[in-house]
Amino acid sequence: MQKKRWMAAALAGAMALTLTACGGTDDTATSTDDSTSTAESSGDVKKISVIMKTSSAEYWQYIKAGAEAYDAEHDDVEVSIKGPTSETAFEEQMSMIETDINTADFDAYVIAPLQPDTVKTLIAGETRPVVALDSNIEGAPEVKTFVGTGNEAAAKQGMEAAVEAAKAAGWTEIKAIEICGVQGEPTNEARKAGYIAGIEENGGDFLEEETQYADATADRAVNCMEAIIQTHPEGVAIICANNDDMAIAAARTAAGNPAYENTIFLGFDGVKSACESILNGELTMAAAQDPYNMAYQAVDAAVQLIDGAELPEFIDSGSSVVTVDNAQERLDTLNSYLA
User: What is the per-residue pLDDT for 30?
Assistant: First the structure.
């Protein structure tokens, strides 16, 4: 791995790099007043601002690690990473974006928007490249590409695996009920569409009229699962959810109920808690995103855009399905990102 000049300085004692620092790093050089580009004025070092949805959640620590890995592997790139204290700290993120957009220090921006419409307004007229991360900023010409998970494709992949598992578990009527996030939210709807396609194209039924909305929280998912059990005392082949927390909560709520003993509980994200739950025999499987690779690709896209490349509107960072067969391997990989 190549060593950057500022990393050499770190070894000299001037500064230290750490994966576990929250709130991001500040690797940017002092801005200059001359008319040359930032890259030219700083020895052709490309400076990229990465603004996450939060700096505190597990998922976003993998995002941070991926961006830092790209930074560490490229002598000519410096990445500044930051994020608000929570995914509801809207004003905090807006302030970060506004501050970085208004500085001459950066050559490109990677932004994971909490409120895409507001971010669209903040970046209006920006001539430096903008890459959307994790969630798109629809209708913004300043956004040159969106790097994220193909949510519909990933959910379909997970549901296809769940259908096969349900058949193997002895279910003859393959029916699924989803515990959703927020009704109408684009990511939620894309995952729902993927679940529907995954079961209906493989001979099963998605009970859409019985969809439960839990606002993406585990507490409400418990109530939703209790309602499902009341309505279906005979059991349901597949319970899928919009995230891992809700799926885990549903599995724990149904634990000990003989009718749900062979139910397939399908989550989405594939974070550490999901891997641990799968290994403990609670959650059955999870459609898994790849946040580390997502961030790595997003920074690489920003670098390419600085160099004048044209990129597709959407770059899929990939997905997989976590089961008991590979959960330990994924858990080890996730732990290595944060070591």
Answer: 31
| Residue carrying structure tokens 């505190």 | 56
Residues 54 and 82: their CA atoms lie apart, in Å, by 8
Report which residue type is found at 248: I
- Tell me the CB-side half-sphere exposure of residue 156, using CA atoms within 13 A: 14
CA-CA distances (angstroms) from residue 223 to 31, 95, 149, 282, 325?
Answer: 53, 37, 29, 18, 30
For the chain, the C-alpha Rg in angstroms (whole number) is: 22
* Contact present, 321 and 161 (Cβ < 8 Å): yes
Given phi > 0 = left and psi -120 to 50 = alpha, else beta, which region is 44?
left
For residue 49, list its beta bridge partners.
Answer: 80, 109
Distance CA 23, CA 20 (A): 10
pLDDT value, residue 73: 97
* DSSP secondary structure letters along 28-78: PPPP-SSSS-HHHHTTS-EEEEEE-S-SSSHHHHHHHHHHHHHHHH-TTEE
Residues 49/100, Cβ–Cβ less than 8 Å: yes
pLDDT tens digits along 64-89: 999 999 999 999 999 999 999 988 88
Coil, strand or helix at 206? strand
Give the dihedral sign, CA 176/179/181/185: positive
pTM for this predicted structure: 0.77
Distance in angstroms (rounded) separating the CA atoms of residues 123 and 143: 9
Integer distance in angstroms from the first to the last C-alpha of the chain? 17
Residue pair 289/154 in contact (Cβ under 8 Å)? The answer is yes
Read off the amino acid at residue 233: P
pLDDT tens across 251-263, in order?
Answer: 999 999 999 999 9
* Strand pairing category for 285-289 and 130-133: unpaired
CA distance 326 to 188: 26
The alpha-helical segments, DSSP class H, found in the chain are 5-12, 38-41, 58-73, 90-101, 116-122, 151-168, 186-200, 218-231, 244-254, 272-279, 291-306, 327-337
